[in-house]
Amino acid sequence: MTKSPLAIAWLGTGLMGAPMAVRLLEHQYQVRVWNRTLAKAQPLERKGARLSSGPKEALADANILVTMLSDFPATKAVLSELDFTGKTLIQMATIAPEESRSLAQMIREKGGDYLEAPLLGSIPEAKSGNLIIMIAGKREVFNKMRPVLEILGSELHYVGEIGQAAALKLALNQLIASLTVAFATSLAFVETHDIAADDFMKVLRKSALYAPTFDKKLPRMQSHDYTNPNFPTEHLLKDIRLFLQSANELDSTALEAVAKLYQKSATDHQFEDYSRVFEAVNLKDGK
Domain count of the chain? Predict the structure, then answer.
């Protein structure tokens, strides 16, 4: 079967994967999609994607494979069945540095090229092509894949060797976890002292302590509504565990405490937004 230079196989059409694949469709790429849960991939067919019965079919006439699967075990299981001769894998899910190096070796042994390209951003950025993408691997492979990545992200940062972009991504997600707990704790504290959240935020916004994520999560914490998440708690918990797994040379006591709060928050609510950690912090109104 003739391979089209515009054909891309896309594995993983979840919260982030689906809108990212749509971006490629909007730019005239032929996208062959596969997802373990077929229902999550079917809406893409209406937008012009071709549904594949499995990863092998998706990759059959494509030169590029993009993976946005749930974790390393799922990614490795799928990739181990594929032939990568003359093809390139762009692995965009959040995995540990050592896991990414393992995948890179496997792809090389299968005759292909490998880029790790984890991203920072949420569903709105995925839809608009404004993700921040961190890339590691051979620079010549990055240069070849740049046109695809530029459709997905407005900021591309080439980091260096395989594993380094994965490490950078975990460092940033650790900040997401820790900042949100810190903000939730301060918000709960001022509320217990009958200080209006508006007064708290007016001071905070004018200070060097402010981060835009605080205003993004404030409405959820005030309404106690964590449904329809951009980033579910279970995903952030997975990333915290990956950070801890890769941080053998650090004192991770503080992050371990943060992880316990997210674990508490996730009990029976793992699919809700990670800002639900406010309920774990707030013993007065915690749910």
Answer: 2
